[in-house]
Specification:
The chain has seven helices and ten strands. By secondary structure, it is an alpha/beta fold. The strands form two sheets. Strands 4-5-6-7-8-9-10 form a seven-stranded mixed beta sheet. A three-stranded parallel beta sheet has the order 1-2-3, with no helix packed on it. The structure holds zinc ion (2 copies). One zinc ion (ZN) binds near residues 31, 33, 34, 132 and 199.
Length: about 240
């Protein structure tokens, strides 16, 4: 799985609840919206469960495990991380290439606020890229770092930050995100087949999102990129 947001609680309903859970998370970074679901993920709250979490090395020298220990503890949570019944194994990574089972994983540090990773997962010639939080150039120009390009190059599916309209970005250009137009530019520039707009601005309502998506779908189709908007419960077949 990618990240540990609040959706994790609902995802857990479909997982083993009897202590046989085995899972792996590729975690982009430590901001609240990406980690808050962890202590509420019921499958790991059972003796015998095992959860591997791969996350970026921290700028302050702490390990990922130390950061989680500092967050999951009283008074903000009833018990300490180490008192949760399942076993958690944290792996500190940066620009790495590794395998998880049969899956090939590529992690690259990407521009955001604080150390943040993007991931590319490949299996049998198919690839999914997850770039949830991606700072575009502050002046609004279109450019991409080598690491992000390496992830996106020719991907079947790119799940990409699409938080702002250009007008919103002008007000919040250093908040770590990008425009919907930038997401489409990345997809076209890197030869991506399907772009999944993700990390919508939290203030956006469904009607606003529908209007945005209709426009980007049209622009994407003209450039040969299939565009869809991510929503809760969406399943994609690659
Ligand atoms: Zn973030
Ligand atoms: Zn975020």
């Amino acid at each position: 799985m990618f990240d540990l947001g609040t959706g994790l609680r609902y995802f857990g309903h479909g997982c083993d609840q009897d202590g046989n859970f085995r899972g792996v998370c590729l975690l982009t970074h430590m901001h609240w919206d990406h980690i808050q679901g962890l202590p509420f993920f019921v499958p790991t709250l059972r003796p015998g469960a095992h959860f591997d979490v791969y996350a970026p090395v921290q700028e302050d020298g702490r390990t990922v495990c130390e950061v989680f220990r500092s967050l999951i503890k009283p008074p903000t949570f009833p018990v300490n991380l180490d008192d949760l019944p399942g076993t958690f194994e944290f792996h500190d990574i940066a620009n790495d290439d590794f395998t998880i089972g049969n899956y090939e994983v590529k992690s690259r540090l990407v521009p955001h606020i604080g150390n943040t990773l993007g991931f590319r997962v490949s299996l049998g010639g198919s690839s999914v890229v997850y770039l949830s939080d991606h700072q575009m150039p502050l002046d609004g120009s279109m450019a991409i770092t080598d690491g992000a390009r390496e992830l996106c190059d020719g991907a079947d599916v790119l799940v990409h930050d699409s938080q702002y309209t250009p007008g919103e970005f002008a007000q919040k250009n250093n908040w770590g995100h990008c425009t919907i137009e930038y997401a489409l530019w990345v997809a076209i520039e890197c030869g991506v087949k399907t772009l999944v707009l993700f990390h919508h601005d939290p203030g956006r309502c469904d009607d606003e999102l529908d209007a945005i998506v209709a426009r980007v779908v049209r622009d994407g189709a003209a450039a040969g990129v299939n565009v869809i908007a991510a929503h809760e419960g969406l399943t994609l077949h690659v």
